[in-house]
Design brief:
By secondary structure, the protein is mainly α. It has 14 helices and four strands. The strands form two sheets. Strands 1-2 form a two-stranded parallel ribbon. It catalyses: 1-O-alkyl-2-acyl-sn-glycerol + CDP-ethanolamine = a 1-O-alkyl-2-acyl-sn-glycero-3-phosphoethanolamine + CMP + H(+); CDP-ethanolamine + a 1,2-diacyl-sn-glycerol = a 1,2-diacyl-sn-glycero-3-phosphoethanolamine + CMP + H(+).
Length: about 375
């Protein structure tokens, strides 16, 4: 079985710069290198960036005045690893087509890890500005994270409804910009970002403005336009607008539950443990999004409620009631559960897809033929 992958990428940076670059890079990769291994390696570069910054800046205060700053070599490494991750994310599909090994498993693996990567991008970039006086507050960053998460799911919601994945323009621009900013930070120091760009307009304000403006003036309008256009043209894959908007129920519920925890936390959990709270939200979101991706791949109806949100509702009630001995301990335990549940879900789906499409058997036969 082979995957018919329908996607539209009209970003000039991607079309005229990055794709030619990726076409050159993929020629240097050995044909025996599995596309999914390329995807996973790129994702692990992002995880490593997150872990590096967590070691040097766990509570996002290292960039603040009077605190020990993150070493310059860490920023250089972060820039290199981020660009490598971006490059590998661009060449994995090309390697699959080059080796005639495109499968539904590859699409799920790629986009599934991308949904988790959204959190790692945001949390790692946050360390540049931090939560100090000239930085971004942890609550503000929480809502910025949600803007990024919803911008991501919009693309897959489009494909769920239209059958075509419209790749957002903001992704390529943000990845190149982030990689450059990391390296620039290593050269000029985080103190540079304290200075206003114009009057009292700081770099942190530019950072916030660009994310929100891109989402609400480009990503959201284009997504709604493409889906409504399909609805008017009777090419919508689902019978009604209710069915079309059904995939948003679980993400919105996740937003409501996590925001209730943030706003009414007895101990100010977001101020106390921002990194872990972001990790919990980002992982739970990735789990919800992966289920949407499976539905749009298999042309099945999206379930309104993700089961993970049922115990989460109980956890939020437990946290807000003050019954828990330690709200921080509760957050750590719940975050661990969410990560393990998401990994278990991913492994289970990969195994089921591999069995259904005989992917491992095809790869074994392909290797045998290559050896002969």
């Amino acid at each position: 079985a082979r995957l018919i992958y329908s996607a539209v990428d009209s970003n000039p940076l991607s079309v005229y710069v990055m794709h030619p670059f990726w076409n050159l890079v993929v020629k240097f990769l050995p044909t025996w290198l599995a596309p999914n291994l390329i995807t996973f390696t790129g994702f692990m570069f992002l995880v490593w960036n997150f872990l590096m910054l967590a070691f040097y800046d766990f509570d996002f205060t290292a960039s603040s005045v009077g605190h020990e700053h993150v070493p310059s070599w860490v920023w250089v490494s972060a820039g290199i690893f981020n660009f490598l991750a971006y490059t590998l994310d661009g060449v994995d599909g090309k390697q699959a087509r080059r080796t005639n090994s495109s499968t539904p498993l590859g699409e799920l693996f790629d986009h599934g890890l991308d949904s988790w990567a959204c959190f790692f991008f945001v949390a790692t970039v946050y360390s540049i500005f931090g939560r100090g006086e000239s930085g971004v507050g942890v609550a503000t960053l929480y809502y910025i994270l949600w803007v990024v998460l919803f911008s991501f799911i919009l693309s897959h919601w489009e494909k769920y409804n239209t059958g075509i994945l419209f790749l957002p323009w903001g992704y390529d621009i943000s990845q190149v910009t982030i990689s450059v900013v990391y390296v620039v930070t290593a050269v000029v120091g985080v103190e540079t970002w304290y200075q206003p760009i114009l009057w009292h307009f700081l770099y942190r304000d530019l950072f916030t403005f660009m994310i929100i403006a891109c989402s609400f003036t480009v990503t959201l309008p284009m997504s709604l336009y493409n889906v409504l256009k399909a609805h008017r043209g009777n090419t919508l894959k689902h019978s009604s607008l209710y069915e079309a908007f059904l995939p948003f129920f679980s993400p919105v519920l996740l937003f409501i539950l996590s925001t209730l925890w943030v706003v009414f936390s007895p101990t100010g959990i977001l101020e106390q443990q921002p990194r872990i709270f972001y990790l919990m939200v980002g992982t739970a979101f990735a789990n919800v999004t992966c289920k949407l991706i499976v539905c749009q791949m298999s042309n099945t109806r999206c379930q309104a409620l993700s089961w993970l949100l049922v115990p989460m509702a109980g956890v939020v009630v437990l946290a807000l009631s003050g019954v828990a001995i330690s709200e921080t301990l509760l957050l750590y335990l719940w975050t661990t559960f969410v990560i393990l549940a998401h990994i278990h879900y991913g492994v289970s789906v990969v195994q089921q897809l591999s069995d259904h499409f005989n992917i491992f058997e095809e790869e074994r036969i392909g290797l045998t033929e290559a050896e002969v």
